[in-house]
Amino acid sequence: MARGSVIVVGAGIAGLSTAWALNRRGFDVSVFEQGPIPNPRATSHDEHRITRYAYGALEGYAYLMPQAFAMYERMFADIGADHFARSKVVYFLREEISWHEPTIRALTRLGAGFRDIPLAEVAQRFPMVRTDGLTRAVETDDGGMLFPIRILTDLTVTLGARGVRFFADSRVSEVDPEAGKVVANGREHRADHVVIAAGAWVNKLTPLLADVVVPSRQAVMYLAPPPELARLWSEVPVLIDMGLRSGTYTLPPRRGTRLKIGDHVFTRSGDADGDRLATGADVERLESAARLAYRDFDRYQVLERKICFYTVTRDDSERFAVRPWGAKAWVVSACSGHGFKLGPLIGDGVAAAIAGERSAEETSRWAAGQLDLAELGAAEPAA
Ligand SMILES: Cc1cc2nc3c(=O)[nH]c(=O)nc-3n(C[C@H](O)[C@H](O)[C@H](O)COP(=O)(O)OP(=O)(O)OC[C@H]3O[C@@H](n4cnc5c(N)ncnc54)[C@H](O)[C@@H]3O)c2cc1C
């Protein structure tokens, strides 16, 4: 007999991971999704996402990363496919930014490999990178790329085979967190618990995080590099360029994906239900950041300019907001650029809280990356 019933709203990485963790614990799970499953408009729906240990000032998340990697390994064993390409991650620092010291402290405490690349070697190893203005280059060993579309699809297939019920094209318009009730397409559904994992739509379903998170319209570009660099690009690691005023992250083409470049400046504006046509204004900042990072950037052919949405914190904290709401609901919101790599781990934590394995207060602090290494060892979920 099931331990209880749970309605999960949203079939992105947060919702599907929570469904996976609840299903493993013996709960009866239903997933409501406003579009198809997986949904191309979801933040999670993309060719690749970066995963890595180096976290700058958000040290608490660096300490979660060994568990986050282990949770993905467990997921891949369970779905029978490995959607992860291991790769080093190389950071190019262009100014004296505050990233270096806390990152090196966390990597050292975790025993994760890293080293400086002498600046004189950068041009030879990474001929596509602009070396003017570089102050430091750091290579880290533990990281790589996750392949989200394949992960979401395989997870859906696995969960369906285990009895998870999917309600596609079912937009939830109302949630009653005290009664465990949702209304979707005009019909009421009840469960012992409701988990809202609605990504950039979260504030349309609950007022709980209205002061904390905001959707942010972002642009990314998929590119074809100049032919003479194509081979090199297929072999380079994930590249991250960091300055005070601009920065880019670049995922090289791997396993059938395209070269992708994005920046890490949040617009904190836009509506996830709005249009997704990339305008010149959407890509202007990204293009100028890319010109600062790469030589001859204008020779790269643009294959697609894509608009997608982050949910980000209103302040600069970039922390997950995971909170109980009323007697029967939880709200899960990934904030900024670590929602995919941490999704399965956070989903497991939410399921652990619902199953009574961990207190609500500790779950919220843990998901916010506010436990240190010693506390994390003691707080690991028992699933
Ligand atoms: C450009 C970009 C680059 C990123 N890069 C990285 C990276 O390199 N590494 C990393 O770890 N993270 C990265 N992220 C962040 C990461 O992708 C997100 O944090 C994560 O995918 C969010 O997942 P989610 O499940 O919370 O939201 P979503 O994937 O958006 O899922 C929410 C789902 O809920 C559904 N929904 C919403 N409202 C309703 C409703 N009322 N009824 C029914 N269904 C509803 C939506 O349709 C959607 O399918 C990046 C994000 C962006 C935008």
UniProtKB/TrEMBL annotation:
All copies of domain FAD dependent oxidoreductase, residue ranges? 6-352
Protein name per Swiss-Prot or TrEMBL: NAD(P)/FAD-dependent oxidoreductase
GO terms (molecular function) for this protein are: oxidoreductase activity
| The entry's keywords | FAD, Flavoprotein, Oxidoreductase
Q: What enzyme class is recorded for this protein?
A: oxidoreductase
Task: Identify the Pfam families for this entry.
Answer: DAO
Listed EC numbers: 1.-.-.-
Say which species the protein is native to.
Ancylobacter oerskovii
* InterPro entries for the chain: FAD-dep_OxRdtase (IPR006076), FAD/NAD-bd_sf (IPR036188), MTOX (IPR045170)
Q: Could you tell me which SUPFAM superfamilies the record lists for this protein? A: FAD-linked reductases, C-terminal domain, FAD/NAD(P)-binding domain
Name any cofactors this protein relies on.
FAD
Give the organism's phylogenetic lineage.
Bacteria, Pseudomonadati, Pseudomonadota, Alphaproteobacteria, Hyphomicrobiales
Highest taxon of the lineage: Bacteria
Is the keyword Flavoprotein in the record? yes
